[in-house]
Design a protein that fits this description.
InterPro entries: 3-OHacyl-CoA_DH, 3-OHacyl-CoA_DH_CS, 3-OHacyl-CoA_DH_NAD-bd, 3HC_DH_C, 6-PGluconate_DH-like_C_sf, 6PGD_dom2, Mito_3-hydroxyacyl-CoA_DH, NAD(P)-bd_dom_sf. Helices cover 50% and strands 13% of the residues. By secondary structure, the protein is of the alpha/beta class. Helix 2 packs across helix 3 and helix 9 packs across helix 11. The structure holds 1,4-dihydronicotinamide adenine dinucleotide. 1,4-dihydronicotinamide adenine dinucleotide binds next to helix 2 and helix 6.
Length: 302
């Protein structure tokens, strides 16, 4: 069948080769889904141990997906082998972007480190390569400054766990071209995600609403008006939320919550709902970070 010009143009621009930088919680999830959906993926980390662990984690996770999709047998094995054959690993970010159509950065949440990385990649990647950051709390525009491809720069904000969570926030800075934005959204759909569009504002959509909500829950407890347990019960049974705010904070990590609010508070000191919370500060100072440390608002010690 003949394709329309628009379809051909879209296909010519389709993203096939993806380099994911950072093989932690988010990077490994993004790399996994990209490999599962037929992209040629290179997953990079400065830490060779991290990237090796990530590859094993992905193998185990794809095996679970294959079993769920196909049960036991040949189709499951085929899905598993094909997915894994699409995934390469590397510790050399610069070399890994040479044939990339898209680079998704998911390294440590630090502006200076992200800028250093993108500045190096800008000189090494082909002209057509789109750069995107998965940052949760740093303005995309501040990261993009490190490059001379502002029209080919944007945000691709995934949610944890990436293989499970359906949403992808696609973020544009004023300079992002329409072609880049369409390509990013198209890739999101090819990844099996539902995309939403957002400008480069603090927290984008989900975290801009969720983080202040969680801090309001803490403030309510700080004022002695209700207990964490009762707040969680209330929001689950009264608002239909699958998790209460304190369960959610323990799951996300109290250090992450503090990091995000501190960043926003520094940028917008007069904004009441971005103010830090003494109760959360104390928990973090005591090493009570949530599920991952065994204790946060609740105890997870076995
Ligand atoms: P993580 O700590 O699990 O993984 C970060 C990885 O990056 C580590 O393996 C580290 O060795 C590697 N790395 C650090 N500097 C590097 C460099 N210069 N070059 C190559 N690799 C480098 O972190 P996580 O949680 O995966 O977060 C990554 C990014 O994703 C952050 O920007 C964060 O804001 C964002 N994000 C995190 C979410 C979460 O729920 N944890 C949700 C959505 C976005």
């Amino acid at each position: 069948a003949r394709r329309s010009f628009a379809q051909s143009a879209a296909m010519a621009n389709a993203i096939k080769n993806v380099t994911v930088i950072g093989s932690g919680l988010m990077g490994s999830g993004i790399a996994q889904v990209a490999a599962q959906t037929g992209h040629n993926v290179t997953m990079v980390d400065i830490d060779p141990v991290a990237v090796e662990k990530a590859q094993k984690r992905i193998g185990a996770s794809i095996a679970r997906v294959a079993k769920k999709k196909f049960g036991e047998g040949d189709d499951a094995a085929k899905f598993m082998n094909e997915s894994m054959s699409h995934l390469k690993t590397s510790t050399d970010a610069v070399a890994s972007v040479e044939s990339a159509d898209l680079v998704v950065e998911a390294i440590v949440e630090n502006l200076k480190v992200k800028k250093e990385l993108f500045s190096k990649l800008d000189g090494a990647a082909p002209a057509h390569t789109i750069f995107a950051s998965n940052t949760s709390s740093i303005p995309i525009a501040k990261i993009a400054e490190a490059t001379s491809r502002l029209d080919r720069f944007g945000g691709l904000h995934f949610f944890n766990p990436v293989p499970v969570m359906k949403l992808l926030e696609v973020v544009r800075i004023p300079e992002t071209s329409d072609g880049t934005y369409e390509a990013m959204k198209g890739w999101g759909k090819a990844m099996g995600k539902v995309t939403v569009e957002c400008k480069d504002t603090p927290g984008f959509i989900v975290n801009r609403l969720l983080v202040p909500y969680m801090f309001e829950a803490v403030r309510l407890v700080e004022r002695g008006e209700a207990s964490p347990r009762d707040v969680d019960t209330a929001m689950k049974l009264g608002a239909g939320h699958p998790m209460g705010p304190f369960e959610l904070m323990d799951y996300v990590g109290l250090d992450t919550g503090k990091f995000i609010i501190d960043g926003w508070h520094a940028d917008y000191p007069d904004e009441e709902i971005f103010k830090p919370s003494p109760m959360l500060e104390k928990l973090v100072a005591d090493g009570k970070l949530g599920v991952k440390s065994g204790e946060g608002f609740y105890s997870y010690k076995k």
